[in-house]
Amino acid sequence: MDALIEVLKSAILEAGDSSEVEHMSRILKTEYENALKRAGFDLSKIHTTSDGRLKVSTPIQICRKKRIDVYEALYKYYYPNDIDSFSAIYAEWLDYYTLIVNQGHRQPATLRRHKYFYKKYIEDTWFDELSVSKMKKSDVKRFYREVTADKQMTATTFGNIKSLVNAVMQYAETEKDLDVVSTYRIDTKDLAMKEVDNSENVFSQSEHDALMTVAWSKIQDSVYARAISVMGRLDCRIGELSGLHWSDIDFDNRTVRISRQLVWYGSEYIERSPKGNAKYSKRILPLTPQTIEVLKLQRRISPFSEHVFVRDDGSGLPIKEKHFNKALERYCSQAGIKYRSSHKLRFYAVTRGLECGEDIETMRAMSGHSTIRMTEHYDRRSEIRPAISPEEWAFIVDVPNRTKVAEN
Predict the structure, then answer these.
(1) What architecture does CATH give domain 86-185?
(2) What is the pTM of this model?
(3) CA atoms of 351 and 376, how far apart (whole Å)
(4) What ranges do the domains of the chain cover?
(5) What does the alpha-carbon distance between residue 48 and residue 250 come to, in Å, rounded to a whole number?
(6) Taking the chain (408 residues) in consecutive chunks of 10 residues, what is each chunk's mean pLDDT?
(7) Looking at CB atoms within 10 Å, which of 49, 84, 127, 231 has the fewest?
(8) Burial class (CB in 10 A: 0-12, 13-18, 19+), 372
(9) In a 3-state reduction of DSSP, which class is residue 354?
């Protein structure tokens, strides 16, 4: 937009006759008006003073003889051609985020997702050209209302956009020392999202039982069979499962402490706090009798490893998500059911728990979510403590009449 304005202004100066000047001036005036309307400015706020000048009182005091000069002053206010427009801060943030991805602190997939959502929903909009230091919460909320208008956006897509805006604004505050609004605190609960039927995108009770039966049949042969058997009975993420240490398992009290997640970057991995607010994401989950049997078998097979689930190749390295999902895909095929990723086992745990009468707050605590709204997203139909007894959870997720694991 800035480039177009400058081209039009230069064309007016270089125009050879009055008709050409008038034509280019009309185009420039229209471009200014459209840009100001996108920024939320009401053109009727421009009024004529007693001496014939044009005046604006808000958002800034402007008084000019020509309307085009008023437009230019307002445009410079709403779209400052300097380093603190959202687009400029985003460009700097992108370089910064790329660096920390290359250093192994963030996932490349997250970077690709941020770039995609910026290009599709933010780039070249009025919001992209706003000064972050002048941006108000009402500006952000207005942008959110526009992108979610007519219920054309799912909650997941909106969450990605909101996450990107938060990240850029946080960068402006912490890395650029700019005084910006806290976008994290903007309430978006009133925004209406597109309803999505995800009932087919989660394991059903019969599919879960079929998958667990196949995994159980291979329990002696593969670490992934054992890992899938455990994850199918725990409400956890794959990164949390692969990040488990034996010190997290309490066989006496039949619980497991979720206190970290493991993330692979190529051939290296790091461990960090579980995703989300650590006050809620660090939690204790109950272990069912069948889960305990599998864990004890895994302990006998890998008695000296720090991590619970390590590869079968003798390297002592923790399992990887992509290998877990490949095994899961094979087992789903053998069970005659549709393949769904490891995260859909987490959806199953929440959904099944609610189907069996557990309240939403209990499932929120077990899932490690900070809000019930997030737990509701997993529903397809804070202290660290067990949110449900092992007996109750065994009733929900254990497959009945399963034979015990043979002792070695």
Answers:
(1) Orthogonal Bundle (1.10)
(2) 0.59
(3) 9
(4) 2-78, 86-185, 205-397
(5) 78
(6) 52 57 74 83 90 88 87 79 80 91 80 94 90 90 92 88 95 89 90 73 88 95 96 94 96 96 84 89 94 96 94 92 94 95 90 86 92 86 59 76 54
(7) 49
(8) middle
(9) helix
